[in-house]
Amino acid sequence: MIPMDTCSSKQMNLKQLRDVMFPLGFITYGGPLAHINVLRERFRDYTTEEEFQELFALCQTLPGPTSTQMVIAVGANLTHSCLGGLVAFLYFSMPSAFVMMVLGLTVPNLSIPWIQLLINGFKYASIGVIIEAAYKLSNGAIKNKFHLFLWIASAIVTTFFPTPSIAVLMIVIGAIANYVSDRQIGQQLLIPQEEQVQHSFDSWLLGYRSLIGYGIAFVLFFFLSYIDWMPIAVCSNLFKTGSLVIGGGHVVLPMIQFSLSNYLTTEQFWNAFALVSCMPGPMFNIAIYIGALIGGIPMAILAEIFMFLPGFFTIFGILPYWKKYRGLRTIRAVLQGIAAVAVGFILSAIVHLIINSCSQGIVVPIGIGILSCLCLYKSVPIPFVIIGGGFINLLAQYK
Fold first, then answer.
1. Alpha-carbon distance 358 to 344, whole Å?
2. 324-331 contacts: CB < 8 A, separation 24 or more?
3. How confident is the model at residue 246, as a pLDDT?
4. pTM here?
């Protein structure tokens, strides 16, 4: 990997940002960590290594999609504007979002048998993708035996009780329990001022307004999510889901499945995941497919907005304050507890995916799932694994 410049960060204008960001929406395969690596390479001439790593640490501890928030943070920081963050997001997310919307409008209406066999194969190969994600995310989230306990407990509880309220309850319990467990070392110590990196994007007024707006929106949508009218229920549940995700894009999967179970079958959900796994860009683009599937183009656009909106609120709200409070141990203890619980949700998702995949047979789904695990272990790119699973299933059914 080419080292980045270690001198002060350089300011960019929107044209320069566009030139750097444009390819990312087409080449960022492989999940959040791969996205971060590509982002680092693209911006190595503009961002110092120290500042890039600090922004990455910030985005890892905030609710929302890590790689997308990193894109927003870098764009806003280097252009000194919210518009820069928005432009960076659009170039990163929109290419695959457009394709996913088109697929959401067309795939469910196709009655061609071999296409459904391909999609089923994509879904079977996704077993390996989620297992790999659970392994990688657990390495970062589980730092001690208590985190391991929270991880296992959340997986067991949400496997047997897969409801949104239980997921929220487990997150709250994880945050409080880890704070209590960490209280003997959870002194409110700040990193010394001279060790802190000064962020260019430093609007305290923007941060204040973003956090206030986020708090009001979260409370409002929390209650609106219980209204049984599809547009309000879907948008509010996606906002709530986007607010509770810490630990990587795959954590969003069981939360969406839990919260939208009244509007989305299990088969439709896992088809959506299989398709988004073949795409570049953020995992959260699954929302635009689901929106298109449920309510056409208007619902697709609303679903995409409400899924990503919490990420904008939190990154714009916290970024100006981060350099002062990033060393606060009590805050980190709470976020680490949430992260451990959230990764446990992925284990639950694996169980439900395997059960769903084996509903019409065991040998082919499990075989493709094991093969996908082996391919990912050998560093085969995720899109190749997913597409390969589709063709293997197609050949197996036409043997």
1. 22
2. 324/190, 324/196, 325/190, 326/54, 326/57, 326/58, 326/191, 326/196, 327/189, 327/190, 327/191, 328/188, 328/189, 328/190, 329/182, 329/185, 329/186, 329/187, 329/188, 329/189, 330/179, 330/182, 330/186, 330/188
3. 64
4. 0.71
